[in-house]
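Co-fold these.
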Amino acid sequence: MKTLSFAWRYLWSRPLGAALNLLLLSLGLASITFLLLVGAQLSKAFDRDLAGIDVVVGAKGSPMQLILSGVLHIDVPPGNVPLKAVQALAQNPLVAQIIPISLGDNFGGYRIVGTSTAYIAHYDAQLAQGALWTQPMQAVLGASVAKRMGLQVGQTFVGSHGLGAGGHTHGDNGYTVVGILAPSGSVLDRLILTDTASVWKVHEDYTAVDDDDRKVMEEEREITMALVQYKTPMAALSFPRYVNTSTDMQAAAPALEITRLLNMLGLGTDVLRAFAGVLLLTAGLSVFIALWSAVRERRTDLALLRMLGASPAKVATLLLSEALWLGLLAAVLGVLLGQGFAAALAKFLSLDNSLLISGMVWPVELWVVPALALLVSLASALLPTLAAYRVSVLRLLQSR
Amino acid sequence: MIESTGLTYRYPGGAELQFPDLHLPQGAVLLLSGPSGSGKSTWLAMVAALVAPTTGELRVAGQAVTALRGAAADAWRAGAIGFLPQKLHLSEALTVQQNLAMAQWAAGRAEDAAHIHTALQALGVAELAGRLPQQLSGGQAQRVALARAVLLSPQVILADEPTASLDDESAAQAVSLLLATASRHGATLVIATHDARVAGLVPPAADGQIGFQRLSLVRKQLSKA
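Predicted complex below.
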């Protein structure tokens, strides 16, 4: 402990140099923390929310938009598709299950999703309170929604038009909360789930002029998209092509689109990673120069320690401890900065509500950062430490 | 006590120093002088068990230091040898108190604040414990360095050029302080110096007292005055 205490004082006896080295090292580590955090969280979110969904069928347009809007709920959908067309697809022998998704309204910025209870079963979500809906205009809240909006079972709320907060309200059609889901870590946590018929009812009540008009609307009902599970993996070879060429809809495979997305992000990630590497290398060199200078400046002081009875290893440990302090401080600062960057990005891109990215989390990959901090600082200290180990006491006696 | 017989040291380049036999009783004072390259540093290093003589026997504080190596030499030196370097080498990153604590750390001893206080008090600098070395006058710094040298009650104190670049009055005070401190600890004192004034500053021994000896070194040979 005493060694660490003395090393700490020696480190800060050159405050400007120590602070600059710390800053350099911390910035490099913060960049790596940021990349790891974003990468790990995106990967986890994609794995979690895309699992078991073989293909998404929706309106023609950007397939990636379809996936982002319908599975991850972070984009607007390209349009709606006729209910009958989707029902026809459900009869396809390659299809095991279809989960309808109808978007259009929100409550407090949280999406109201018209679907079936199969959607909840798909993510193995459990009810924390209440029950699932049994009729239209009953809603089951995701755990985050219930917590953030402070809603309880039995309370009512009114949705607003649009997928973001601020649209006009559907004042005549209130939802009753019948259930609240336990946190599942999936996209469901931030959704308000209801029967598909609720979405139709809200919009038909809002737009239908008279009963005839309502009947026409009932005939032409739409949903936003359908999440499809295949009976067999072989279906991937023919089903999307069939949908894309024989219907007015498009089929998008989540796995393909997300791979495409990650490849697009990959270039930016590579640049950031290279930048972080250069920062770390620079920091390592800087720490090396600082410690090397310290040994040169304090050579006779170190020799005196030998004269006072310290072993060469003890003298070397003192210098190594300075590097260790730098590494530890930089690891803490770098991780905090990286977490802050990730939280700021999430806030800036409004991804914090989506649970895709947030700060103040510790995925297992993040242990790389303290390990890297120690590695860089100790590697930088290697030669200076060796020089301290070999410092000659005769130099002290001859320094007249 | 320092005793040596047949002491030689051969440098890697081949030059060899020969040191005459010496018997310095415990509590005595030795003035070690000689020009640069005459072997003063080597002699001090051998006494401190930092380098081993090529031949001969050397006993310091009852220990055959020629037999000491590595960790054993470090441990022995920590307890037996006090060292006052010419440039003092008080760490500017540490307070006076911490400089002495570091000496305890270097010697592998637990920090003993009370003992440090006593050592500083004995040299009249206890009130400076919280100051940094750069806040001390030259005389204060020398007292602190001397307190560090005697902190672990060594049997031998090696003082390297303690009067260099001091005016006459300060030099006299420095030597007087050294003699008093060594006497108080009952330690053998070795003063390695170029300074001709030092011999005049060491009072002659009275009858029955342990006196001082001179060891004047010349290049590649040693003569005892």
